[in-house]
Design brief:
With 369 residues, the chain is an alpha+beta fold. Helices cover 37% and strands 15% of the residues. The strands form four sheets. Strands 1-3-2-4-5 form a five-stranded antiparallel beta sheet. The protein has a five-stranded mixed beta sheet with strand order 8-11-12-13-14. Helix 6 crosses helix 8 and helix 7 crosses helix 8. The longest helix is centred in the N-terminal third of the chain and has 18 residues. The relative contact order is 0.14.
């Protein structure tokens, strides 16, 4: 149950929460951090598709070039692995080896929905066999399913593959995920790819602090949404003496690090182009700090997320490439100044990620609900 605070707790308005979150997400101003340091600070980048992590860093870092992240992956200092919310993320090697053990209980619970398809399957034996297979050579999921099906011909092939993914920390090997390269998804274990064993899961309190540094101020439910975990209240309570507490406009208790930035709500926030599935929009139970209630549901179509545009720090539209044109579709009317700023940010993004490639930029028809 979400805890509410007393009226004496300091109030943080949605705009105050917005500016604090943007600052920690490196979106209020571009950061001089390296690509590796940024991925670590942000606790990973959502990466269902290949390009979003590159667009996420282009929006956040000063002097970023896509080769910086690509080289980290080629050098095995960053990897793509299923972790938070059972979704694919790009993590540093260190976080891969610690955050995956942290969320392993959630991956075990995920298997309960596939019990019928795994009837008669010894999951410990499956994990051992799958490990041998992918460490002998990286395998596609299709190849892994076929090999496992030979051992358990009566099982559901999809459930067998899911069981391997849930039981083992499977990373996508390069060239998959490299900028400007292509490659099918081939998997091996994190330990084999990185050449060192997994670390023990970190104490929840340590991860709470890191989450607040990147996404705070936040409630217990916010962090549980981000991590895809439950029962984090105790970790927050153990940290309570060292944290500050606030309340949002609904009276929900928010925790924060004492020395974390909480900028003036009137601090200017420049436009930003974010990729689909950016963690800024997925890491809180209450997303009104970024998504105005009038725009709920406007960033999705079916199970596919749109690329999003922030104006004045809040969701204000979507964007998409169409051939050699970048189409910006605002949800409402932009002022002349906002249009100029959005155009300048679009040009900067294109110059960062596609230097030397001619692109037109146009504003499309306003998207209707």
């Amino acid at each position: 149950m979400t805890k509410t605070t007393s009226p004496a707790s300091p109030l943080l308005t949605p705009r105050a929460l917005n500016r604090a979150t943007l600052d920690r997400q490196l979106l209020l101003r571009r950061s001089p951090l390296s690509a590796r340091a940024a991925v670590e600070h942000l606790l990973g980048l959502q990466a269902q598709n290949v390009n979003p992590p590159y667009y996420a860093l282009a929006a956040r870092l000063d002097g970023f070039a896509p080769e910086q992240l690509s080289e980290l992956m080629a050098d095995r200092e960053a990897v793509r692995i299923v972790t938070l919310r059972s979704t694919l993320h790009t993590h540093t090697a260190d976080d891969c080896l610690t955050l995956r053990p942290l969320v392993q209980p959630a991956r075990e619970r995920e298997l309960r929905a596939f019990r019928e398809g795994l009837a008669g399957v010894d999951l410990d034996r499956l994990a051992a066999l799958a490990r041998d297979l992918v460490e002998a050579e990286p395998r596609t999921m299709k190849q892994l399913r076929e090999a496992l099906l030979a051992e358990w011909p009566g099982a559901d092939p999809q459930a067998l593959g899911l069981a391997a993914r849930c039981r083992l920390p499977l990373v996508q090997v390069t060239p998959r995920g490299l900028w400007g390269r292509s490659g099918q998804v081939a998997l091996t274990t994190a330990e084999h790819w990185l050449g060192r064993p997994a670390e023990p899961a970190p104490r929840p309190e340590a991860v709470v602090r890191r989450y607040l540094a990147a996404f705070g101020p936040a409630s217990v439910k916010d962090m549980q949404t981000w991590a895809g975990l439950t029962r984090l209240r105790e970790a927050f309570e153990r940290l309570r003496p060292s944290l500050l507490t606030f309340r949002d406009e609904h009276g929900v208790e928010l925790f924060d690090l004492p020395d974390a930035p909480r900028p003036d709500p009137d601090t200017p926030a420049p436009p930003r182009f974010l990729p689909e599935f950016d963690n800024l929009l997925l890491s809180h139970a209450d997303r009104t700090r970024v998504v105005p209630p009038a725009y709920w549901g406007r960033t999705w179509q079916g199970n596919q997320a749109h690329r999003v545009l922030l104006v004045d720090g809040f969701l204000a539209g979507v964007w998409k490439p169409e051939g050699d044109t970048l189409v910006v579709e605002p949800f409402g009317t932009l002022t002349d100044r906002q249009r100029r700023d959005v155009l300048a940010e679009a040009e900067r993004m294109l110059a960062t990620l596609h230097p030397g490639t001619p692109y037109d930029i146009r504003f499309g028809t306003v998207v209707r609900p």
